[in-house]
């Protein structure tokens, strides 16, 4: 280890400095996430930052470089964590420990959750208190580096169902629909999600009642990413996926993060030819969050939201 790296490591460990993410940090944060080939969306991170401005912590160098990051976003009575990484050239200096504990100290005795990669399950359980392990599903990452063909999906939808871009008049019933699935009020997150740049949100209505909605966005890797996507009916979910893909052409690939116990979501991705690349284990410090996962076809954000 060079003298400079040794001094930097000692400084980090002694001062223990970490600060909250600022809006101006977002472009640099996305560059960091690209180093890890993560399919994050800058506007979505901004959405959750606006919901919880102290929810993302970073450690920066003397030159203003982001060296490490960790997020735990407050969702009602649950803090949900992700984005945990240290840039390769700064690893081995204790940065991960500093930024992790900055988030954990903020959470305090409250319930927290995350999606653990296979190699870190024991560490989260035995060293960090994430002792409650979800046994009904895994969170699954499906990624294609090539564009997908939406015309492989069905045109058949239930009678009287209309799929259209979200409009202002949809918001009151959209908030109610989301609440019926999640069990807590996410109207700010939903509103901001539908207003994100370079994204498209569609709703499915039947006789004036919302029975599904979904959003597609462009990730920092140039891929199209669908999430959230919720629907009461598998045919409606498939039709929403088809319309969303059509609405966002000229992308480098396709990403959708699902739950393993929603076999209809898996079927849609098989039709599109999108492979499963990783399965993550949901872990909590206290109680599991209970929702109707049969209606969840794509997670809002695998690093920042529980579903």
TrEMBL record:
Which Gene3D superfamilies does its entry note?
3.40.630.30, 3.40.630.90
Give the matching SUPFAM superfamilies. Answer: Acyl-CoA N-acyltransferases (Nat)
GO molecular function annotation: acyltransferase activity, transferring groups other than amino-acyl groups
Note one Pfam family from the annotation. Answer: Acetyltransf_10
N-acetyltransferase domain: which residues?
Answer: 16-149
Coiled-coil portions = none
* InterPro entries found in the cross-reference section: Acyl/Acetyltrans_Enzymes, Acyl_CoA_acyltransferase, GNAT_dom, YitH/HolE_GNAT
Q: Which PANTHER family does this one have?
A: SLL0310 PROTEIN
Q: What name does this protein carry?
A: N-acetyltransferase domain-containing protein
Q: Which gene encodes it?
A: AVEN_226027_1
